[in-house]
Write a structure and sequence with these properties.
Shape: globular
Largest sheet: 4 strands, parallel
Radius of gyration: 16 Å
Strand content: 15-25%
Number of helices: 1
Length: about 170
């Protein structure tokens, strides 16, 4: 595991690549809360070969204002609260080979059997440097839940249409 706050405010880090080492048996399973928060020069996070990585903690990459490219692990199954809050230029998070999450138009969703069920995070670039400030009903269709702080730090989001959701409560 990468501990909570382990690399926070390490302003010279530009890239993070995590791979499992099958030769030694050392397998990283989680990225702790705020582990890379404030790494303002961080541009790229490559986790797709980390076959044992199952968790990204809350605010893990908070305020990484240069972050443009993220590829998540196919084994990722736990997504902490707003891990990309304040990543103002991040427009997409790729989830290659992962059936638990998807990112469409700068919105990260949890999925079950390929269907979006929960809105996890609206990336801050939505409505500012990418896409429109209106989140339409078809983008919200089928959602049953919204994660806490899912839209926090999104000044470009001007409206959200909940018409086609079954969300009983907005945290």
């Amino acid at each position: 595991a990468i501990a909570e706050g382990a690399f926070s405010n390490a302003v010279s880090i530009t890239s993070v690549t995590i791979q499992g080492n099958t030769d030694t048996g050392v397998m990283l399973t989680s990225i702790g809360n705020s582990a890379f928060a404030g790494c303002t020069a961080l541009e790229e996070v490559m986790l797709w070969e980390a076959q044992s990585l199952t968790r990204i903690g809350a605010n893990a990459f908070k305020d990484c204002t240069s972050l443009m490219d993220v590829e998540a692990s196919p084994s990722l199954n736990t997504f902490g609260k707003a891990p990309f809050i304040g990543c103002s230029v991040l427009q997409d998070v790729a989830f290659p080979g992962n059936n638990n999450f998807t990112c469409t138009d700068a919105i990260i969703y949890a999925t079950v059997n390929g269907e979006k069920t929960k809105l996890l995070e609206i990336l801050p670039a939505r409505g500012m440097t990418y896409g429109t400030g209106a989140i339409k009903s078809d983008e919200m269709a089928g959602l049953q839940e919204i994660a806490p702080e899912a839209s926090k730090g999104c000044p470009g989001v001007l409206s959200i249409d909940f018409t086609d959701t079954t969300i009983p409560e907005i945290p």
